[in-house]
Design a protein that fits this description.
The complex is a heterotrimer of chains A (298), B (201) and C (140).
Chain A: E1 2-6, H1 17-29, E2 32-36, H2 53-69, E3 74-76, H3 79-94, H4 96-106, E4 119-121, H5 122-130, H6 132-138, E5 147-150, H7 171-178, E6 182-183, H8 197-200, H9 202-218, E7 223-226, H10 229-237, H11 239-246, E8 254-256, H12 257-264, H13 282-290
Chain B: H1 19-26, H2 43-47, H3 60-68, H4 72-76, H5 89-93, H6 100-114, H7 123-137, H8 142-146, H9 155-170, H10 184-194
Chain C: E1 6-10, H1 14-26, E2 30-34, H2 37-46, E3 51-54, E4 57-58, E5 61-62, H3 63-73, E6 82-86, H4 88-91, E7 110-113, H5 118-139
Parallel strand pairs in C: 1-2, 1-3, 3-6, 6-7
Antiparallel strand pairs in C: 4-5
The chains are: A alpha/beta (298), B mainly alpha (201), C alpha/beta (140).
């Protein structure tokens, strides 16, 4: 069983608890262990970089150093946490003076950064370590007929890490297809959900959410799946406010990709945290679940 | 830019540093090309979901032109960088390899340090509230953050926010108590090694 | 003090630098300037200076602290007197309201906060240079 150091991030404690539950359930079902960092701190989100980037690097380095102590690679389910940790590690690796400076601060907590642990987003574990074929082999409830729009968002892909193609990724579609569902092709799958603008510029963010949702619905998506708690909150919890502000009638469920995977793996919806959404999920998925041997009732 | 400008006679004004150079100094550690290499193609503005929806007073392309023309005052008072959502679409698509999102971060820092941003923006007070919260507890906590922006809202928005918050609370998705990390003393000492402010250790 | 003393300013604020440079030049110091930590370090490595005037908040954050620490570890530069001139309390005042700045990143440094009075600036510079001379004389 492959083990990763798991850095859930602040959102997964409560707001996105269902992402945490489904991440634990699905990785376990696929033979991967997530070992939670014992005293992780906030990654600094975007706000820290507005004040002091060195401080932001230090926060990330503390989490990375704890993973290194366990001799494990670090996995983050939140795209923001992932991006921050990934690029903090890069910055420290390429600037020995910076690493030395930050290590002096980390010493206050008996930690050291050496760069031995790599950083992954949770979806990369499924897409590349486990792989769609291995997932498919474990699927007991193929979600036939369910049209699912995979939403990449921003920070899994951007900024670019090397020379990879950030314009035409397919790994999320491949994961959706592995569950038996049909990945929906739609134009705005890589477009920003507004992120923290939902707080700092509400109308701009709501209009971005509206465009995204309408685009997915027009492509006949039954369901949108995300890999980031902020994307999920913006696309789902603010749907009502979008309808109110723009006179739309949007009502499309938005869940985490791990919840979709869990359903296909035959894990009861309740154990995946399904039921904590503001837009009901069951009406959209009931038919897909019914075509197969019934899963345990919620 | 030469690394060191040697001394000028006393009466001369130090004409050496233009605004664009000042910004280049601010971003000295950034990986992208300096903004002097911008060809004003407009890819950044077209690809920016906020600018193209009409929410920025100056598009990223225009902001870069303003920096190069030395419009310091107008640049600092623009909402462009505070309305950047950090989606990095401009950065990955810039044909000249300029890290435009990083420029936006740099300008946020620059204006926070000088308290010289456009009035009425939520971004600066949100950032300050957030950073303060992490310094105290090591973790973020949504209800505290709400205090940084709700006061700017009108009644209709407040009602909508309250409805969303109530719905989330009923689903058990809002934390009632702030979380904090365990080794908080170490954590605070760590922060003071980086930012030399605060009570002695 | 017979020969002209050579000073380096590392500070990201061109207006402030222009101001104190004028004051120091008028007082017959030779003054070089660098506006970011990288250029500043390159200058320290390429020329001999008698004193460094160092800002804290530059580039990515509190980079002046990083330079001060690096100086302290450098056998050739560790005895260079450093005068830290900072507006950090104002720049990120919201973080630790009303609390003091910790000045001692390097053993021989001094700290003044912006804005700085010309008279005070010259006094501090002079006394740091004098103390450095005395240390040097003692070492011999």
């Amino acid at each position: 069983m492959k083990t990763y150091a798991y850095f859930p991030g602040c959102s997964l404690e409560k707001m996105a608890y269902s992402y945490h539950q489904s991440a634990i359930e699905t990785t376990r079902a696929l033979g991967v262990e997530l070992k939670e960092l014992e005293d992780w701190n906030c990654c600094g989100a975007t706000a820290y970089f507005h004040v002091d980037e060195l401080l932001a690097f230090t926060l990330c380095a503390r989490n990375i150093a704890m993973a290194e102590k366990e001799q494990l690679d670090l996995v983050a389910p939140c795209s923001g946490c992932y991006k921050n940790a990934y690029f903090a590690r890069e910055a420290l690796l390429h600037d020995p003076d910076l690493a030395e400076h930050i290590n002096e601060a980390l010493a206050e907590d008996n930690l050291q950064f050496a760069g031995t642990s790599k950083i992954h987003h949770l979806i990369e574990i499924f897409a590349f370590d486990i792989g769609p074929d291995a997932i498919k082999a474990k699927v007991t409830n193929p979600l036939k007929g369910l049209r699912v729009a995979p939403y990449y968002g921003c920070q899994i892909l951007r900024p670019r890490k090397g020379k990879e193609d950030v314009e035409r990724p397919r790994f999320f579609e491949d994961i959706v297809a592995a569950t038996g569902a049909t990945p929906v092709e739609y134009l705005l799958r890589l477009r920003c959900c507004g992120g923290a603008l939902i707080i700092t510029n509400r109308m701009a963010a709501l209009s971005m959410v509206r465009n995204l949702l309408e685009c997915a619905v027009r492509a006949r998506a039954d369901l949108i799946v995300t890999a980031c708690p902020l994307c999920q909150v913006n696309l789902e919890c603010y749907q009502k406010q979008v309808n109110r502000e723009f006179g739309t009638e949007l009502n499309v469920p938005v869940i985490y990709f791990t919840q979709l995977l869990g359903l296909a793996l035959g894990i009861p919806p309740k154990r995946l945290g399904i039921g904590s959404e503001l837009v009901a999920v069951m009406p959209a998925i009931e038919q897909a679940l019914r075509t197969e041997p019934a899963p345990a009732a919620t | 830019m030469s690394a060191v400008t040697s001394a000028q006679p006393p009466k001369e004004v130090d004409a050496g540093v233009s605004f664009v150079e000042e910004i280049n100094h601010l971003l000295y550690a950034a990986k992208g090309n300096p903004i002097n290499t911008c060809i004003q193609c407009g890819t950044c503005s077209a690809t920016c979901p906020v600018a193209s929806a009409g929410y920025m007073d100056n598009s990223p392309r225009r902001l870069i032109a303003m920096i190069r023309a030395g419009f310091k005052e107008q640049v600092l008072k623009a909402n462009t960088f505070w309305y950047c959502a950090s989606c990095y679409q401009c950065t990955v698509r810039c044909p000249r390899g300029i890290d435009i999102a990083e420029l936006m971060y740099g300008l946020k820092r620059y204006t926070v340090w000088r308290s010289e941003y456009q009035e009425g923006l939520i971004g600066p007070s949100f950032s300050e509230t957030f950073v303060k919260m992490i310094v105290r507890t090591g973790r973020s906590y949504e209800p505290v953050l709400a205090t940084s922006y709700l006061f700017t809202y009108g009644l209709p928005e407040i009602i909508q926010e309250a409805q969303t918050a109530t719905a989330l609370m009923l689903k058990g998705r809002l934390p009632l108590l702030p979380a904090r990390i365990k080794r908080l003393d170490n954590f605070r000492r760590m922060i003071r090694k980086i930012i030399p402010l605060g009570e002695p250790e | 003090m017979s020969e002209r003393k050579r000073l380096l300013i590392i500070d990201d604020d061109p207006e402030f630098v222009a101001g104190i440079k004028a004051i120091l030049t008028r007082a017959k110091y030779e003054v070089d300037t660098a506006y970011n930590p990288k250029d500043g370090w390159a200058a320290l490595k390429s020329k001999d200076y008698d004193l460094l005037l160092l800002d804290i908040m530059m580039g990515r954050g509190a980079e002046g602290v990083m330079i001060a620490r690096k100086l302290n570890k450098d056998p050739k530069l560790r005895n260079l007197p450093v005068l830290i001139i900072t507006g950090i309390r104002e720049q990120i005042a919201f973080l630790f309201p009303g609390q003091a700045v910790h000045p001692h990143f390097v053993p021989v440094d001094e700290l003044v906060e912006k804005p700085v009075e010309p008279k005070l600036l010259l006094e501090k510079v002079e006394s740091l240079l004098k103390a450095a001379e005395e240390r040097k004389a003692k070492a011999k």
